[in-house]
Amino acid sequence: MYGRYSANSPREVNSLHIDYSQFINPVGQLVEIGQHGEIIHRFCSGFNFSDAGHFLSAGHCLSTNSNQQQTCYVYDTDIIDLNRTKVSFNFQCLPSADSRICNVSFEPTYKITRIDGHGFCLYDINQRQLDYAIFHLEPAASQYGYLPLSKNDPVLNDNVMVIHHPLGLPKKYSTGNIHRVYADGSIDHTAHTYGGSSGGSRCFVKSG
Questions:
Q1: Whole-model pTM?
Q2: What is the C-alpha to C-alpha distance for residues 187 and 181, in angstroms, rounded to an integer?
Q3: CATH number of the domain that 97 lies in?
């Protein structure tokens, strides 16, 4: 489900002319919480994939050590502190007559009670695994809906829409197409992403 991420400037584009509003609500953001409950750091994106509190992000987002982001392992001493990490929803710009103005909506956060599973192998072609992390949220944040996981394999040249938080910014979306499919099902795509986009939803749209 996760492709490699290109280092392009974050853009909000919709070359597919798709109403993306139906896909945006389940997408959230991993945030670090300070001593007084304030958000002090924003990193990585993710999304609800069930109505029972299951939130999917990228496996490398678990690591506090950037050197591990080219390995296949996350060590216990380098895993993010779940007591200080929450998932934020609704961090997005409210509709405005002036597109230059971003009035941010109310942003509730949800506690991560456990990690239900993860895979973490990005660049070693001989040991490739899916780069994913499954978090369990409490409460379930089911009011935002969820994006079901696709049962179909990605297809070359199919359109893809990414909903994400590039650079920790309010929610954005970008579109492109799949230009390479690997044997393990991972993809390269042309939709623009940046740091903070990792874990964001990839919505596939059939060509034609």
A1: 0.81
A2: 5
A3: 2.40.10.10
